[in-house]
Automatic annotation (TrEMBL):
GO terms for cellular component: polyphosphate kinase complex. This is Polyphosphate kinase. The active site is at H447. One of its GO terms (biological process) is polyphosphate biosynthetic process. The keyword Chloroplast does not apply. The keyword Plastid does not apply. InterPro entries: PP_kinase, PP_kinase_C_1, PP_kinase_middle, PP_kinase_middle_dom_sf, PPK_C_dom2, PPK_N_dom, PPK_N_dom_sf. Catalyzes the reversible transfer of the terminal phosphate of ATP to form a long-chain polyphosphate (polyP). It comes from Symmachiella macrocystis. GO terms for molecular function: ATP binding; metal ion binding; polyphosphate kinase activity. It is an enzyme of class 2 (transferase).
Length: 705
């Protein structure tokens, strides 16, 4: 389906210069759905992708669609939009139209392909009428002893006002005819029952294989007992998605930012609904009654042919005994420079070290912090934390270091979307352990991934630095692809020290020697490099730009890339998600190729290369090419100077990514994507598998040395 925004198209001869960011994102989620539909993927991996589609869409609805809905109600235009000319009304309609199509495909894939196929392997999602006698008795006992005591049936009438339906909460809605009702009261009432989140939604049943029933099905089959003496005319499962974009006004934060965020999180509970999901094929009068209560239009109601919220299926990933239904297990390899119990500081002193996650273990980053915490010669540790996770060995190491008397500073980004509550909790725990916790700037998110360790060595101090493209999160490091650099080069250390001084003390005036920092000069430096390649191409010199990033949205960068393409610069982009640039348009972007890789791991690393030979500038970064990264976040882009590491990125990592002809799709001039397939005589290359194989081969070589 072509997605280039027709509002930006002045005529058939003049293609649009931009694809809308949100429409482009929907196509990204469509590519995730394609992985669920792909029969070459193992069945449990297909289930995983179905779950991810739902999780992605939830976040999109809560943040992006809620913002567009607010614009329709008179809110100011967000500052992060692309200049594609789309009106809020057009976007609102287009998004829901495409979403309904994708959700229809998602559930067709689930019901017609995945569930029947996986049932043949012994994993079954059963309806109440499919239970065996043994399972029926188990469910009855489970309901009486565990479920029934925590349920609260709520009828809605003038004396029982409409209960607040929680964001992403699951409910049963029913039309009931109560035996007991006020004189002159309505014969039929709307009633709701919340499905408790304190209990597992997937109820495992006794049996030979792995049989499950959904908790809402278990409750729905017993609604007559919840509303004793009432007739149940009709019922359905419902789920409400609400606006969840936390917005803290810096001008109104007088004392404690963490307290303001907690208050903001509480306020989110009462934000407007943006979507209602209901089970398909139910009483339309019931649906209309619920929608009226929510004040939602028909396009915001999603009739779903199956279980609501497929993220529940993610629990099947941990089922034992089904390895044949998953991708082959792998163990992240320790970098050769960091063998077991190695002195990480001695290793870094030898040369810069590049680590490639998840193929190489994130444990080396944890070891770096653990050894710093225990080393009596380490005087100070400073680190930025954006998404650290619920169980964080990184945070534990910082607290241990502080308890050992070291000077430890953590710059915690409390406004990391959907991780606000966890970050507030970690901040308070670290403060109790003696860590100096700083929240950065009110109007700028701290998104850079930096660690500084100051160590006494003889009569001098040496700075050790880790810079990364991904979060200090040991859990996501197993499923996100990211790159990290360890170095003790003096200029890096000076820059990172200045960066922390800026974050903690508003210190300015430092002349950056290695780091390129947003919001100061990251956009300007990026444009400078693009213009330099444009000039080289105009003068007949070889010129090249490569970018691997998550999103390309910034209009200034897109225009500079168009200019570079017209000058003859060869431009290759691997953009996982939203891409607002239109590639391959004659006279505009002939020399630009855009690809997206969707595979087992989430492609998350950012790599930027400017130049066509070994003298090219090679950078890693925490930032995408988006207005928010350039203007509203503290980001870091840093060069790779070690020749062997630079060569590895340019001659191994990047070519492997570009050679992918299994999980890569190429963006077309109309904004759609086409899966790349191996040509005749060309072997299939799946880049993520190739990286895993290379790591295993390197281990075998090391073992034989």
């Amino acid at each position: 389906m072509a997605i280039a925004d027709e509002q930006a198209q002045s005529s058939a001869e003049s293609p649009p210069r931009y694809v809308n960011r949100d429409v482009s994102w929907l196509e990204f989620n469509g590519r995730v759905l394609e992985e669920a539909e792909d029969e070459t993927n193992p069945l449990l991996e297909r289930v995983k992708f179905l779950s991810i589609v739902s999780s992605n869409l939830d976040e999109f609805m809560m943040v992006r669609v809620s913002g567009i809905r607010s614009q329709l109600n008179g809110a100011e235009q967000p500052v992060d939009e692309t200049p594609d000319g789309s009106s809020p009304r057009y976007l609102f309609n287009r998004i829901h139209e495409r979403n309904h199509e994708l959700v229809g495909r998602q559930y067709a894939c689930l019901q017609q392909a995945v569930l029947p196929a996986i049932a043949q392997h012994g994993i079954r999602l059963l309806e109440p009428e499919q239970l065996s006698k043994t399972q029926q008795q188990y469910v009855e006992d489970y309901f009486e002893q565990t479920v029934f005591p925590v349920l609260t049936p709520m009828a809605i009438d003038p004396s029982h006002p409409t209960p607040h339906l929680q964001n992403r909460g699951l409910y049963l809605a029913a039309m009931v005819q109560p035996m007991l009702r006020p004189r002159g009261g309505p014969k039929r009432l709307l009633a709701v029952v919340q499905i408790p989140t304190v209990l597992p939604r997937m109820v495992e049943l006794p049996g030979k294989g792995s049989d499950f029933i959904l908790l809402e099905q278990l409750v729905a089959s017993r609604l007559d007992r919840l509303f004793g003496g009432s007739n149940i005319n009709s019922w359905t499962t419902i789920r409400v998605t609400r606006d969840a974009d936390l917005d803290i006004d810096g001008d109104e934060v007088m004392h404690d930012l963490s307290q303001a965020i907690e208050e903001g999180l509480r306020a989110l509970k009462h934000r407007d609904p943006v979507r209602l999901e209901v089970t398909a094929g139910v009483d339309e009068k019931l649906v209309a009654t619920v929608a009226e209560q929510m004040q939602l239009g028909p396009e915001e109601i999603y009739h779903v042919d199956g279980p609501l919220d497929l993220t529940a299926l993610m629990s099947w990933q941990s089922l034992p005994g089904y390895d044949h239904l998953r991708d082959a297990a792998f163990t992240p390899r320790r970098p050769a420079e960091f063998p077991e119990e190695a002195d990480v500081f001695a290793a870094i002193r030898k040369r810069d070290i590049l680590v490639h996650h998840p193929y190489q273990s994130f444990g080396c980053v944890v070891d770096f912090l653990d050894q710093a915490a225990e080393d009596p010669n380490v005087l100070a540790i400073k680190q930025t934390l954006y998404r650290s996770g619920s169980e964080s060995p990184i945070v534990r190491a910082l607290m241990s270091a502080a308890e050992a008397g070291k000077n430890v500073t953590a710059v915690v980004e409390l406004m990391a979307r959907f991780d606000e509550r966890a970050n507030v909790s970690w901040a308070r725990q670290m403060e109790r352990a003696g860590v100096h916790v700083v929240f950065g700037f009110l109007d700028l998110k701290t998104h850079c991934k930096t660690t500084l360790v100051v160590r006494r060595e003889g009569n001098r101090l040496r700075r050790y630095v880790h810079l990364g493209t991904g979060n200090y999160n040991a859990t996501t490091a197993k499923i996100y692809t990211d790159l990290g650099l360890f170095t003790c080069r003096q200029k890096y250390g000076e820059d990172v020290s200045a960066l922390f001084n800026m974050l903690t003390g508003y210190s300015l005036g430092h002349q950056w020697k290695r780091l390129v920092i947003a919001p100061h000069d990251l956009q300007a430096k990026t444009l400078e490099h693009i213009h330099r390649e444009t000039k080289r191409a105009s003068e007949g010199q070889p010129a090249r730009i490569f970018g691997k990033l998550n999103s390309l949205v910034d209009g200034d960068v897109i225009e500079a890339l168009y200019e570079a393409s017209q000058a003859g610069v060869e431009i290759d982009l691997i953009c996982r998600g939203s891409c607002c640039l239109v590639p391959g348009v004659p006279g505009l972007s002939d020399n630009i190729r855009v690809r997206s890789i969707i595979d087992r791991f989430l492609e998350h690393s950012r790599i930027y290369i400017f130049g066509a030979d070994s003298n090219a500038d090679v950078y890693l970064s925490s930032a995408d090419w988006m207005p928010r990264n350039f203007r509203r976040r503290v980001e870091a882009m840093f060069p790779i100077l070690e020749p062997t590491l630079k060569k590895h990125i340019m001659e191994s990592i990047v070519p492997t990514l570009q050679a992918d002809n299994v999980k890569a799709r190429e963006m077309q001039p109309d904004g759609s994507y086409r899966r790349i397939k191996p040509g005749k005589g060309t072997p299939p290359v799946r880049s993520q598998v190739r990286f895993l194989e290379e790591m295993a081969a390197n281990d075998a070589i090391d073992d034989n040395v």
